[in-house]
Automatic annotation (TrEMBL):
It comes from the Eukaryota. It comes from Strongyloides papillosus (Intestinal threadworm). Residues 372-406, 441-481 form the ShKT domain. Disulfide bonds join C372-C406. This is ShKT domain-containing protein.
């Protein structure tokens, strides 16, 4: 057994080593560790983990994988990848085993395990460059890496920093030339109207354009993305803000406050609220931009006055609303002798007892030839998009009334009845016309150039968003009215 093992060792090691001696004059001690008592253990470890490389460039994990064809294993501990490279002799650069013009002869240890199976071997390690002509025109070769050449500034005469072509130089007002000034803080560059680049420890010009704060280099400056200019962070200007409303005071452009930098910015685009977490926290899905979220206003739809059915839940909710409830017309104010203040959109008490205003209801408007209604139930929320070219056609169809797109504008008649100071109960009775014609219970199926199939849309009757539209056009189908029995 021992003889068989010895023959294998001679076959794998002696023959390749003989070839290596011709190239680099390596000895067995150079390849193997000096501890000759563990030759068998080293051999077993090498063969166990060997990947059997057969040529230069093949993968390897130890010098053992490569030495049989005059190569060594360059192993990267980070990527855990090794490559077989040619062996070389650093003392004989002109020999047959010398490296090419993009390689250097360098000793590399065997990095296969924590216990090195072999001593370091000199190999031809590829490098980025060995001479300047290996790099680009504006680069030079330093320590086998291509780096950008540092061009010394010419003696350019100047009066301001804008006269200096190189942004890494500032104008020395005393010498009247562009110079490279050493610094450690911004204060040392204040006399040159510049800032300190801590990366190079030189005074540089304040960047004229920016997309983010990093472009401004100095921490004392922030990037105002509205005008794409670096400004001092503590300077109060039209673009400096503490809240979103500060951005609307002086600027005519639509902007919001980026509270992380306290500057006004153009609302960035978004797909969801997560994209706006650093600004407004709300993504407007109509414009797909980060905007200030409007306060949620709960609007209760009024039941038709000719509905003689059972009391609905929303009817009782309206009756219990506070007197300063949000309103859009006088009909939203259910408390007696209250009207809708259009300036505040709140119900207010009518303190002028001399006159009582009676407004037309939607059912009375339906008697006109042309009905002007909103198809959608949330038009008030999106009325700002009425004139937006992107949404105008959609708004014209869905929210014609709120957007004032009706061809025949319906004039709401205001009836005034002089009050001779009767008791309050009589004033309330005066609101009710003496002769009330019972409206005909039918479906008003015509809407502009459309014919509405109420039966097919019956599922929309109980949906809050479409209640107003279905009440006007499909009141019979939805059961919002009852046919009067014929005598």
């Amino acid at each position: 057994m021992f003889i068989y093992l010895f023959i294998i060792i001679i076959y794998y090691f002696y023959i390749p080593i003989n070839g290596l001696i011709n190239v680099s004059n390596f000895s067995l001690d150079k390849l193997l560790l000096n501890d000759e008592t563990n030759d068998g253990l080293r051999y077993k470890l090498s063969t166990k983990f060997s990947v059997k490389a057969n040529a230069v460039g093949d993968k390897c994990v130890s010098h053992f994988d490569c030495i049989h064809f005059n190569a060594g294993c360059a192993f990267d501990q980070q990527t855990k990848i090794g490559v077989c490279l040619y062996l070389c002799d650093s003392n004989r650069t002109n020999s047959k085993g010398s490296c090419n013009d993009r390689e250097i002869c360098k000793e590399e240890a065997d990095s296969f395990t924590s216990k090195n199976l072999y001593l370091p071997l000199p190999m031809c390690i590829p490098v980025e460059c060995k001479e300047d002509n290996h790099c680009d025109i504006n680069e030079i070769c330093q320590e086998n890496y291509c780096v950008v050449k540092t061009v010394l500034a010419e003696n350019i005469t100047c009066s301001t920093n804008s006269d200096c072509v190189d942004e890494d130089t500032v104008c020395d007002r005393n010498e009247k030339i562009c110079s490279s000034v050493q610094c450690s803080t911004d204060n040392e560059c204040s006399n040159f109207n510049g800032i300190c680049n801590v990366g190079t420890n030189t005074c540089i010009q304040i960047p004229q354009y920016c997309n983010n704060n990093k472009d401004c280099i100095s921490k004392a400056y922030v990037c105002d993305t509205l005008i794409q200019t670096c400004i001092l962070e503590d300077v109060s200007s039209n673009y400096h803000c503490r809240d979103h409303k500060d951005c609307q005071k002086e600027s005519s452009l639509a902007s919001i406050c980026d509270k992380s930098r306290n500057v006004c910015i153009i609302p960035p685009t978004c797909k969801n609220n997560f994209n706006c977490q650093k600004t407004t926290g709300y993504c407007d899905m109509n414009t797909l931009t980060c905007n200030v979220k409007e306060s949620n206003i709960v609007v209760f739809n009024r039941p038709p006055k000719f509905n003689t059915g059972k009391v609905k839940s929303y009817e009782t909710e309206i009756q219990t609303q506070p007197k300063d409830f949000v309103c859009f017309s006088d009909q939203d104010c259910t408390v007696a002798n209250y009207f809708c203040d259009k300036s505040t959109k709140r119900c207010r008490e009518n303190k002028n007892e001399e006159f009582v205003e009676i407004a037309n209801t939607i059912s009375e408007m339906l008697t006109l030839k042309t009905s002007c209604v909103d198809v959608a139930g949330n038009c008030k929320k999106y009325v700002k998009n009425c004139l937006n070219p992107k949404y105008k056609s959609m708004m014209k169809y869905a929210c014609s009334r709120s957007c004032n797109f009706c061809s025949d504008s319906i004039k709401t008649k205001k009836h005034y009845k002089k009050n001779t100071s009767p008791p309050e109960s009589k004033v309330i009775l005066n609101k009710i016309p003496k002769k009330v014609e019972t409206p005909v219970c039918k479906d008003n199926i015509r809407f502009r150039h459309h014919v509405i199939n109420c039966e097919d849309r019956k599922n929309l009757c109980k949906q809050k968003m479409y209640y107003e539209f279905m009440r006007v056009h499909c009141s019979k189908t939805c059961g919002f009215c009852k046919e009067t029995p014929t005598e």
